[in-house]
Amino acid sequence: MIVMAIGAHPDDLEISCAGTLAKLKRAGHEVVLCYACDGDKGHYRIPPDELSRIRRQEAANAGEVIGCPVVPLGLADGEIFAEHAGTRLAFIEAIRAVRPDLIITHAPNDYMPDHAAVSKLVFDTSFLATLPGFGDSPVAPKVPALYYMDNLAGIGFEPTVYVDITDAMDVKMKMLECHQSQIVWLREHDRIELPEFVRTLGRMRGIQAGCTYAEGFIQHMAWTRPNTVKLPV
């Protein structure tokens, strides 16, 4: 099975679903990490061009932890809109290149505009990628199953699926630690210690799921979505 995880920024997947991705990779599935925005505006001292380079390298380093390719779409923070034709085409082409059976992305009601835009873009373009009228590349063979990963702090998110990541929590944290620029940013901008924040949410979901650490997901249920395709962990 081919799994594509699409986040708005370089660290979003590590925060919300890296344990599940590590387990999928360990189980022999093909896993591709993708992020839409370069994370170029998330620092008080590092200028955008330099920060983009730093965060691309951090994302690549995190992907190397589990041996997965990382695909950046190269968009700017705060400038991603679901209605923009060029942005939609970039998502279509990325999905067609990977040809996923299953996609994981942000929930529609996540906490900031880039996350919400990516959620809408993934929902729209994972269908549009199967239609021949968009771009010149070969169409995707099917509409993939779609899962939404946890919102930050779990607010407004009621999982329908839990994945026990107890045996992958150390790997998840190793991936997260690759994003040092973001750890500094969230400490200064939001007054949180990101590793502690992520462990706490994982423990909360673990309590709900009856294990030590877990990640929560909501499966998008709709006609043409292959709802028989499950997170196989």
List the helices and strands and how they pair.
Blueprint: E1 2-7, H1 12-16, H2 18-26, E2 30-37, H3 48-66, E3 70-75, H4 85-98, E4 102-106, H5 113-128, E5 145-149, E6 161-164, H6 169-177, H7 180-189, H8 194-209, E7 214-219
Parallel strand pairs: 1-2, 1-4, 2-3, 4-5
Antiparallel strand pairs: 5-7, 6-7
Helix pairs in contact: 3-6, 4-5
Globular, elongated, flat, extended or rod-shaped: what is the shape?
Answer: globular
The parts where pLDDT drops under 50 for at least 5 residues are none
Q: Give me the strand/helix succession.
A: EHHEHEHEHEEHHHE
Instruction: Quickly name the level 1 CATH class.
Output: Alpha Beta
What is the CA–CA distance across the termini? 12 Å
Architecture per CATH nomenclature, i.e. the level-2 architecture: 3-Layer(aba) Sandwich
Number of E-state strands: 7
Helix content: 40-55%
- Mean pLDDT across the residues is 95
The largest sheet has its strands arranged as 3-2-1-4-5-7-6
Strand content: 15-25%
